[in-house]
Amino acid sequence: MAEKALGTHWTMKLWKEGESSWGCHMTCQELPHLNMLEMMTEGVEKSVDHPMFGGKAKVCFKKNSAGDGFLSYSDSETFGKTSWEEKYTDEGVTMVCTGNGKTMTETWERSIKIDGAYVFDHGENIEAYFKAVGYANANAMDALKNYKMHVWNKGNQFCTKEWFDGHLIANSFTLDVEGPVRYPDDKEGEAPKRTGIMTCAGNGKFLGVTKGPHGSEEWTYAFNDSGIVMSGVEKKTGTACKFYMKRFCDVSGTYKIVTAIGFEKVAAAMGLSATDAQEMITDTSTRMKICDLGNGCQRHQMISKKYSTDISFKLNEEFDFHHPILNECVKTIVAMNGNTLCLTMKTSKGLIKSTIHVNDNFSVCSVCIPAANLGYKLILERCH
Q: CA-to-CA distance for 378 and 285, rounded, in angstroms?
């Protein structure tokens, strides 16, 4: 098996569950039969039956004395007794494996997810930094409570969208190429007052420099498993600040239908013709839009050629909604828990319950009419 593994590409994901349990998910592009997902409890021997361990084996692990890695062993019917020591750093992990009197060392590079949504958690010296760079909006510090940011890094493109102080600020950089940089104080329709450049400064790290009316700034973006640390320095005075941004799943966005399951039966029960139902699902221009308006308020739009809706409401409070298919006013309430929205409508057909579970790239919308024992599901893709 060792010869077959030469030149293959592996990914390992680790996460902690509770106080002493860990999950490990290993995948190999070329040898998918070795893909493995196991949950282990520290210091507790576990019996497994998997090709990764040569079939049946007993496996156990514990933390090392330094607290920066694990000591593990396996006793396999095929491979015999094997031990390995793992040491973790910001750059990755080094594994020293020993078995049958031989030792092998592996080096794994840490894979840092950059693409995603981030929300402000806390900061350092931000108010002084705003003054140093001339951003004098009196509401700026309060606006940080709702500050969020989307990031995409594809090849040599580094793109951001920021929602701050009532502004949407979108910037797109080609790495190592100077270009315009938009700030919150740039007026809509006018050219940005600043120019800048962005470069990759290491694994999960980017460095940007901007020049504007108040001088130059240097920004470092250091991505980690849980978020970003953005460090800014105003070059003239040396004033520095830090933004600690936490990764989260943003329900706000625009989504298009990828597939539908069971929609035709539910549509028929609601009085919609089979032709109209098919047209709604197959219309590639149909979009679902969710917008967080702040202060617990949201706007939901369903845009299609046949039926469209546009409602704004406050979470956890009842409101009236004119249902375009039923052609009646229905009592509605929406609640949210994390990245899941739950909507209930009281209609002439009985209660209609909907759940929208949002992920980074896809969302799943589940709708049911309990009285009719009917339901459908939509899988939607986020549009960037």
A: 15
- Among the candidates 248, 263, 293, a domain finishes at 248
Number of domains in the chain: 3
Instruction: Compute CA distances 175 → 157, 169, 196, 212, 218, whole Å.
Output: 6, 19, 11, 19, 15
Q: Are residues 178 and 159 in the same domain?
A: yes
| Residues 340 and 275 placed together within one structural domain of the fold | yes
Given a cut of 60, whether residue 72 has pLDDT beyond it is yes
359: domain CATH number?
2.40.128.20
Query: Do residues 230 and 283 both lie within one domain?
Result: no
Residue 319 near residue 300 (C-beta atoms within 8 A): no
In three-state secondary structure terms, 276 is helix
Q: Any idea what DSSP says for residue 111? A: P
Burial class (CB within 10 angstroms; exposed 0-12, middle 13-18, buried 19+) of 210: buried
Residue 87: what residue type? K
**What DSSP assignment string belongs to 127-192?**
HHHHHHTT---TTHHHHGGG-EEEEEEETTEEEEEEEETTEEEEEEEETT--EEE--TTSPTTSPP
Alpha-carbon distances of 278 from 51, 128, 199, 284, 292, rounded to whole Å = 46, 58, 48, 12, 30
pLDDT digits (tens, 9 = 90+) for 220-271: 999 998 999 999 999 999 999 999 999 999 999 999 999 999 998 888 888 8
Cβ atoms of residues 181 and 187 within 8 Å: no
pTM of the model: 0.80
Structure tokens at 222: 């250091």
Q: Does 124 share its domain with 229? A: yes
Exposed, middle or buried by CB within 10 Å (0-12, 13-18, 19+), for 321? buried
Digit-coded pLDDT (tens) for 137-186: 666 777 788 899 999 998 999 999 999 877 889 999 999 999 999 988 88
**Dihedral (CA of 266, 270, 272, 277) sign:** negative
